[in-house]
Amino acid sequence: MDLRQLRYFIKVVECGNITRASEALHIAQPAISQQMRNLERDLEMQLLERSAHGVAPTAAGQTLYRHAQELLRQADGTRDLLRQDAELPQGKVSVGMPSSTARVLAIPLARSVRERYPGITLELIEAPSADIGAMISAGRVELAVVADHVETRGVLAQHLITEALYLIAWRGFPMPPDPVPLAALARMPLILPSAPNTIRNRVDWALREAGLPCEIAFEASSTTLLFAAVMAKLGVTILPWPAAHAELDEHKLKLARVDHPLFTRELSLCWHDTQLLSNAVQKVKATLLEMFELLVRRPEWAAHS
Q1: Residue 89, preceding peptide bond in cis (omega within 30° of 0)
Q2: pTM value > 0.85
Q3: What CATH class has 3-86?
Q4: CA distances from 175 to 72, 191, 224, 273 (A)
């Protein structure tokens, strides 16, 4: 039983005659007759009483006629909703991202989605980079910007950018020539993100591989605390450009590249591959990718190849 058969059946009952129904539907009479026989065979019951004067619904046919009308109304209503959603997507979309990325992406994304798609309610979740990937797997967010994504079953990923990790210090700090040698970095008081963290992992690996001891002066779980500690001259930190762009523009901080290949990280856009992405999620995803295409043109963000 399909919607086409139900439409034919309703027209046959309303016309009381297969010939008149075929004329109204602009369908050949044998085709209408065959569809009615198929419908009766599939339901294993007689739906129409046939006579020389036409057809009339049996008791089962009358019941099907009432339900078929409701089913077709629902189908037409669903089609209208889908058409409306294609033009004006509706619903809530949750997007997770690390705090460093959120500082440059979150507000522009929220503004763009609100202007383009007022029917979408955007939820932005800022979380430690080590936690973002798990949010996708758990279904907590539909989309996530993930740092150093590890291939995970059930999660799809699209590369966004290889971002440089910078040494960030207060304006008066005696910064070595750019790029800063790793040995010089090891002699500085470091203020680093609390583990587990992708940036912390890379700094630890680089120093350990080089056999360089370092002084961890301060640990913090948020970008705001890291910057507060740097501004208080407790030490220097390692972060990507988006995390510090506002303070750099205001000349409160300065940055330098570090001369080591581990001082980069990969950002990817991730989503769950077992979920059918709604129109709203697809619109937010497209908007986010579009914004990254513009933002990655900033020479400070991307790592040099």
Answers
A1: no
A2: no
A3: mainly alpha
A4: 73, 16, 22, 46
Q: Which two tokens stand for residue 35?
A: 């569809």
CATH superfamily of 91-161+265-295: Periplasmic binding protein-like II (3.40.190.10)
| Dihedral, 187, 193, 194, 196 alpha carbons, nearest 10 | -110
Q: So what's the architecture of 163-264 in CATH?
A: 3-Layer(aba) Sandwich (3.40)
Structure tokens at 125: 């979740």
Cross-strand partners of 189 = 215
Contact, 45 vs 33, CB < 8 A? no
38-51 mean pLDDT: 91
Same fold, 3-86 and 163-264: no
Domain boundaries, the chain: 3-86, 91-161+265-295, 163-264
Residue type, 127: A
- Give helix 99-116 / helix 279-295 axis angle, nearest 10°: 120
Cα 149 to its chain centre, rounded Å, is 15
C-alpha 157/C-alpha 268 separation (Å) is 6
Tally of CB atoms within 10 A around 249: 9
81 pLDDT higher than 70: no
Q: What is the pLDDT of residue 77?
A: 63
Handedness of CA 222, 187, 165, 265 (dihedral sign): negative
CA distance 185 to 73: 70
